[in-house]
Every structure is written in structure tokens, then in C-alpha cells.
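Milestone M4 deliverable, item 7.
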Amino acid sequence: MSDVGSDLPFVGIPTFCKFPYTKILENIDVAVVGAPLDQGTTNRTGTRYGPRAIREASQIYGAFFSKEKGIYDVELGRFKLRGTKIIDYGDIAVAPTLSELNLDLITMSVRDIIRKKVFPIVLGGDHSITFPVVRAFKKTPMDIVHFDTHTDFLNEEFGIKICHANPIKRSSELNNVNKITQIGIRGLVNPIYMTEEAMKYGANIITAEKAINLGMKWVIDQIPESENLYVTIDIDALDPSCAPGTGTPEPGGFNYLQMREMLTALPEKGNIVGFDIVEVNPLYDPAGITAQVAARLIIDFLAAIMEKK
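Output delivered:
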């Protein structure tokens, strides 16, 4: 009788979608790893609890995963992630107040994963975690597709070189990073000097209003084909009506279906080498809607990536 009810969402240790927790990477396709860090936050703290919230929200989907078939998507009329070996790699250990050390720990952990040819999904944490993740791919030439409200191209302010306002600027300085496409940019918290930095680099900035007016297919057409793509998803690219739990919400963003349409089309533009989803802040969303949307987008995007591979 010990297994009765073990698949229920509220039973057991909440790994991502109830996948096994292990640090063993042999014969594994995908590793989900948490980066519970919010020392790079400049507004509302709490994203350090993002990985835990996303994992907890994912339990309802984990209850319906079959080891042999994956999970059935009634809208697609087929199973997704059939035969994909997925683990929860746990969280990267962080050292409170030691920001640069924490970024090094993230780079080392992700590097360990990709050395084993395992696909990494990183759960943030604030957006500063994207730079050390991209840095882990130092020998892989790549383009970046960046979903966000903000350009995150702050160069330096008050002596701050690494925070959640400049992971794309720092990533753009890496030798392996080439073209950058930024999607969903909008609002009043994009100072002109930050936008000018992005334009100086040559980033393709697609505003949320333009994207919504011209359609998701148009957006995908603007992304150049690439040998390798890294994708970073700031949850505030979505409208706060469907993702209120974030540090710097801004009206006028995407809904879930629009974001899903773009993400699931991305594998046609090139080989996705990894992705992160950041800035989920459960302290500002007691209903858990934001984490639920994040968990679902991870499954949707990963399924599209694995099918293409």
C-alpha cells in the first residue's frame, strides 16, 4: 500500500514534474537545475524562491507523466517528451552576499552538465544568473534570443557591473556570443542609455506592441537562423495579468498562448543549446499563477526542442 497516492501533486518531495533527483548525469538527456539567487535584484527581492515555486507548481503535471510515453497534450492530440530522460539536478549552492562567487558556482555547475552532453534548463533566480550560464558555453558560438520587458543592457551604474539589469550586456561581451534578438521590450523602465547600449551592439529590439500587432509568426521571422541558440525567458515578458509574481511588472506583455507559440517555433531557427526562465517571484503571487505558467512553458518549450533534436 506504500505507493498508493504517490503521484498526487501534494505528495512527495517536489522535484520538477516529479522527475528523479540525482547528480548522476550518465545516460541523461535533460537536467533541470535551480539557481536560487536574487542578489542581483534592484527592486523587489524574492526570486531566490523562484526555483522552489516552479517545482511545486509543476507537481500537477508530473502526476500525469508516463516513463514510457511522456505526457499527453490533448490540444496536440499526441504525447510529448516520449523517451526523454529528464532529471532534477537540484539547486546550485549559493553563498549569501558573495555575488561574484555565486556567479562562478553557476558557471561551474552548468559547465559540468554540458560536458556530459546533457541539455540544461536553469530555473532562476533573478536575471543576473543568465550571464554565468551563457559563460559556461565558452567554446560554443551562439546567438541569444531574449524575452523580456527590459533590454538588460545596463553597462554600469553606481559601480554595479553585474545585476539583473545587465546580463545581456555582460553576455554580449563574451567572444562566443554573436547576434542578439530581444522580444517583448516595453514600458517606462528602459532608460535611453540602456536602449542605446543594445542598439550600439546591434541587438534586434522587438517591442511588445509591435510583436502583438504583427503576430507571433512575424516575430519568429525576425530571428536569424543560427547554428546554436541560447534562450533566456524573463517571466515579466508576459503581462502581469497572467504573471503577476515578478520584481518589475509592466503592463502590455504577452499572454501564455502568445509566448508558447513563439517558444515552440524557435527550434526551427537553430539548435537550442539550453534555456533559462528567471524572475519568478512567488512572494508577490500568493495564488501561484506565475510559477504555474513558468512550469507549463518549460514543458512546452522543452518538448518542441526535443522533437526537433
